[in-house]
Design brief:
About 70% of the residues lie in helices and about 5% in strands. By secondary structure, the protein is mainly α. The protein is rod-shaped.
Length: about 80
């Protein structure tokens, strides 16, 4: 049983059905707002992760190109040098 304390009374009395319902509705509204905020954060994080994955892919390609160029430049010069 949910109990509340009255401001002017020191005795505890049970909450009425309407008070319990109002409290539950308030909690649900708070949870709905929290869920919406978390969904926005998750969406922002997903977008950030996508951008970072693209950048990582591009950096990997550049590294491979650099490695290939370095390997070619390390080859012995042609015989006419």
């Amino acid at each position: 049983m949910i109990l509340s304390t009255g401001r002017q009374e020191n005795i505890m009395k049970p909450l009425s059905f309407e008070e319990r319902l109002e409290k539950l509705e308030s909690q649900i509204a708070f949870q709905d707002k929290s869920i919406e905020e978390l969904e926005l954060i998750v969406t922002e994080n997903r977008n950030t992760i996508d951008k970072l994955q693209k950048q990582l892919h591009l950096l990997g390609e550049r590294l491979q190109e650099t490695s290939i160029l370095a390997a070619v430049s390390e080859e012995a010069p042609p015989p006419h040098y």
